[in-house]
Each structure stands twice: as structure tokens, then as C-alpha cells.
Write a structure and sequence with these properties.
With 104 residues, the protein is of the alpha+beta class. The chain is 49% helix and 14% strand. The protein has a 3-stranded mixed β-sheet with strand order 1-2-3, covered by helices on one side.
């Protein structure tokens, strides 16, 4: 699925390429027990990123259906990450991760 914004589309394609490369390495390194590769975008909480999310929520929801709350837990507590790709906010000043909340 391509987005109307070339930056967002490029970032999605880049993530897809990196995921494919990591999947290949996970199989090669893990051999009998391949590693599991998981994908999550951490968006820095800026006005520009908030505007991008507000403009393309459908694209982002479709590409990142994993539970944002579970992703934040996995990153901060070390629990198993969700199977589906996810997205969360990061505030570098407070060093906190915040789950994404989608408007209906």
C-alpha cells in the first residue's frame, strides 16, 4: 500500500526492505531455530510527526496493526513483542515511550 506522501511511502518501503533482510539473517543465523523478527516504529513526538499521523491514520493503522500498548511493554519491560508491526511515540526529553492512540 503506497501513501500519497512520498516520505511516508519511502519510510514504509525502507522498513519492508530492512525486515526482509533481517528475516533472511534470522534464518541463516538461527538455522534450526530461526530468530523472530519484529517491527515497530518509534515516532519522535514532534508537530510534524503528529501532523503526518493525523493526515494518514488509515495507512498507518493498516501497516502497523500491532498493539501499541504491548509494543511499549515489550520495549520497556522485555516482554515478548506482538506478532504484528506496531507504532509508538517516544519523547526524548522525558525518555518515555507512549502508546499510539488512533482516532476513530
Amino acid at each position: 500500500m503506497l501513501s500519497p506522501d512520498p516520505r511516508l511511502g519511502g519510510a514504509i518501503r525502507s522498513t519492508d526492505r530492512k525486515r526482509a533482510e533481517a528475516d533472511g539473517l534470522a534464518v541463516a543465523i538461527g538455522r534450526d531455530r530461526p530468530y523472530r523478527v519484529a517491527t515497530c516504529w518509534l515516532l519522535v513526538d514532534t508537530a510534524a510527526n503528529r501532523a503526518l499521523v493525523a493526515r494518514y491514520p488509515g495507512v498507518l493503522r493498516a501497516r502497523f496493526p500491532g498493539s501499541s500498548r504491548r509494543w511499549v511493554d515489550a520495549i520497556t519491560d522485555g516482554t515478548a513483542p506482538p506478532w504484528d508491526p506496531g507504532i509508538a511515540w517516544i519523547d526524548p526529553r522525558s525518555r518515555r515511550l507512549v502508546p499510539a492512540r488512533w482516532r476513530r
